[in-house]
Design a protein that fits this description.
Layout (H helix, E strand, L loop, with lengths): L2 H18 L16 H31 L5 H24 L6 H14 L2 H27 L1 H9 L7 H21 L3 H6 L10 H32 L7
Length: 241
């Protein structure tokens, strides 16, 4: 998972959502006002375009979830369910907006799009960050699962030159993989606990998760580098790239 993509979702999409929030003028509590037909048509078209963009994003996110091989079964089920709900909600709005005839109706549909279906600033980071966190956790677990194999291979060459260095590198690799796995504990659960209604107060949760995932990825890189040294020394390569 590319972290530029995650950053764009967490930060860039948030700015886009805030910037576009006020495109429909506030509805007066007094008597109905007239609206220039051309202006109304422009506002309606803009809302339709924003809904279409969200429909496209939801389709992409749904594909990301279905293609992921590292998502836990529970996380995949949670994301799939939420994506299906938001996809249905947005589809309903897409069908409704063309028949809107007043600013009040457009305003209500706009609010439903933003407040009830935070596609870009909540759903998107939930998908991307959960996949990323589960991926780091799965890769760390894979490295650790080969510990007994590496330990046995090292033990068979305890008297060979370079053994002490290989043993030290293996211990370092194991420690880094353990840290990476530990760092992912609870990340997905915290990310998935967020709701559209919590935005923007929950934005920091996504930022914190991204930082933890980044640290985990760095620990994995370091762990793999150390492990490659050990594998080369013992002439055994059990860990996939």
């Amino acid at each position: 998972m590319k972290f530029r993509q995650i950053a764009a979702v967490v930060v860039g999409a948030a700015m886009m959502a805030v910037a576009s929030l006020g495109f429909v003028p506030p509805v007066s509590a007094g008597p109905p006002t007239t609206t220039n037909p051309a202006t109304f048509a422009q506002l309606q078209a803009k809302l339709e375009a924003q809904l279409t963009a969200r429909q496209t994003q939801l389709a992409k996110l749904t594909t990301d979830v279905s293609k992921s091989t590292t998502l836990t079964s529970s996380d995949a089920a949670t994301l799939s369910s939420r994506l299906a709900i938001e996809t249905s909600n947005i589809a309903a709005l897409i069908a409704k907006v063309p028949s809107d005839t007043t600013i009040a109706e457009l305003r209500a549909d706009q609010q439903a799009m933003f407040k009830d279906n935070r596609v870009f600033v909540v759903m998107s980071p939930q998908v991307l960050l959960t996949i990323a966190a589960d991926t780091v956790g799965a890769k760390a677990a894979a490295i650790l699962s080969h510990g007994p194999t590496i330990t046995a291979a090292l033990a068979a060459r305890v008297d060979d030159k370079g053994y002490a260095r290989a043993e030290e590198r293996f211990a370092f690799s194991t420690a880094k993989a353990t840290v990476a796995e530990s760092e992912m504990t609870g990340v997905s659960a915290e990310v998935l606990a967020q709701t559209p209604a919590g935005w923007p107060g929950n934005a920091h949760v996504f930022v914190t998760a991204r930082i933890k995932i980044l640290r985990g990825r760095i620990d994995l890189i370091v762990s793999r580098s150390a492990l490659r040294f050990v594998e080369h020394w013992i002439g055994h390569h059990p860990i996939p790239a």
